[in-house]
Design a protein that fits this description.
Elements (H helix, E strand, L loop, with lengths): L8 H14 L27 H16 L4 H7 L2 E3 L7 E3 L3 H14 L2 E4 L3 E4 L1 H28 L1
Antiparallel strand pairs: 1-2, 3-4
């Protein structure tokens, strides 16, 4: 059985976002249409389904680095911001986005909180991620021999 470590992150996150889109407990808030992802961003996200992608990415990060706090996740999703002619400095990502996404993941039963330490993935969330990683891994293994024949 493959784990999250064994598959490409972009493939896992996109597939998990599609699954979360079908989940009734994960829904973007009304303000997500107008909000930037942080003070470092110039524009709102171009992808209309960015909320599900962010939730999937958060679930993966919590799986890999948990227990992890909201402050640590804000730093992870931040970026560089240039102000005038000065050098660029790091700016944290939006805290409301991280908090609301984690609250929805907790309500869905994928994440739980450990007091004083941060969030970790529950057994249900681990099963969901590992099953998806196994599916992706099987598809990649099937694709590799075909690529080697033609390469």
């Amino acid at each position: 059985m493959a784990k999250v470590y064994d598959v490409p992150a972009d493939e896992l996150i996109s597939r998990l976002a599609e699954q979360l889109k079908k989940d009734k407990k994960i829904e973007p808030p009304a303000w997500s249409v107008f909000v930037k992802t942080g003070s470092h961003a110039d524009k709102i996200p171009q992808n209309r389904d960015w909320w599900f992608t962010r939730c999937a990415s958060l679930l993966r990060k919590i799986y890999l680095h948990g227990p992890i706090s909201v402050a640590d996740l804000k730093v992870e999703y931040g970026g560089r911001k240039k102000v005038g002619y000065n050098l660029a400095h790091h700016r944290d990502g939006g805290g409301a986005i991280v908090r609301h996404a984690i609250q929805q993941l907790e309500a869905a039963g994928y994440v739980t909180k450990i007091q004083g330490k941060g969030r970790i993935v529950t057994s249900e969330g681990t099963k969901k991620l590992d099953r998806l990683a196994t599916e992706i891994h099987k598809e990649l293994v099937k694709a590799v021999p075909a690529l080697q024949r033609y390469g």
